[in-house]
Amino acid sequence: MAKIGVQNLLYGILTENNGTATYGAGIKPGKAVSCNVSISNNDAKLYADDGLAESDTSFQSGTVSMEVDNADITTQATLLGHAIVGDEMVRKATDTAPYVALGRIVTKMVSGSYQYKVEFLSKVKFSEPSQEDTTKGESVEFGTTTLEGIVSTLADGTWSKSKTFDTMADAKTYLTGLFGTTPSA
Questions:
Q1: Whether the predicted model's global pTM rises above the 0.90 cut
Q2: 61, 97, 119, 132: least surrounded by Cβ within 10 Å?
Q3: Which of these, 180, 167, 162, lies nearest to 118 by C-alpha position?
Q4: What DSSP line would sit under the chain, residue for residue?
Q5: What is the pLDDT at residue 185?
Q6: Where are the domains of the chain?
Q7: Mean pLDDT, residues 162-172 taken together
Q8: Residue 133's pLDDT band (boundaries 50, 70, 90)?
Q9: How many whole angstroms separate alpha carbon 107 and alpha carbon 175?
Q10: What is the CA angle 76-100-173, rounded to 5?
Q11: How buried is 138 (Cβ within 10 angstroms: 0-12 exposed, 13-18 middle, 19+ buried)?
Q12: CB neighbourhood size of 89 (10 A)
């Protein structure tokens, strides 16, 4: 299996009530350039009677780095908890980013055929990105926006879902269906 692309990034505001997770409509933050997920696992070992008796390598937390071609101010304000006043984004030290779900479709080549794997992170909180701007030199270099977030678990312990499809249409339908149909407040 060879991964050959990523597309269809979507996020939706998470609401958890009494252990039940619901999501707002899936919103596209921009065109996907890259998406990197790094998972940290617990690593505990118990030795007894001169041997390994128990071990734990369960999910602990994760980080996600989402790079898009252009995260407009609405996307940034929504993901980072900022306000939009008129046509400007206003950042305050007291702003709190909401929890969201983040999904994407990874294109794969398996035995000469395309497959489309939906990857869905159930609970992510993004943080303020660093800003790096450079002048145009002798040649043009494109800049993109990278947002980083922390992956955690829902109340029931779920942190991710994935499913593979033979058609892009089926993958898009599944991904969209993981989100709600109306935006969350």
A1: no
A2: 132
A3: 162
A4: -EEEEEEEEEEEEEEEETTEEEE-B-B--S-EEEEEEEEEE--EEEEETTEEEEEE--EEEEEEEEEES---HHHHHHHHT-EEETTEEE--TT--PPEEEEEEEEEEEETTEEEEEEEEEEEEEEEPPP-------SS-----EEEEEEE---TTS--EEEEEESSHHHHHHHHHHHSBSS---
A5: 47
A6: 2-132+143-178
A7: 95
A8: low
A9: 14
A10: 105
A11: exposed
A12: 14
Residue with tokens 């990197």, as numbered in its chain: 36
In total, the chain counts a number of residues equal to 185
pLDDT tens digits, 95-128:
999 999 999 999 999 889 999 999 999 999 999 8
Q: Report the alpha-carbon distance of residue 99 to residue 34 in Å, rounded.
A: 21
Beta partners for residue 16, in sequence order: 21
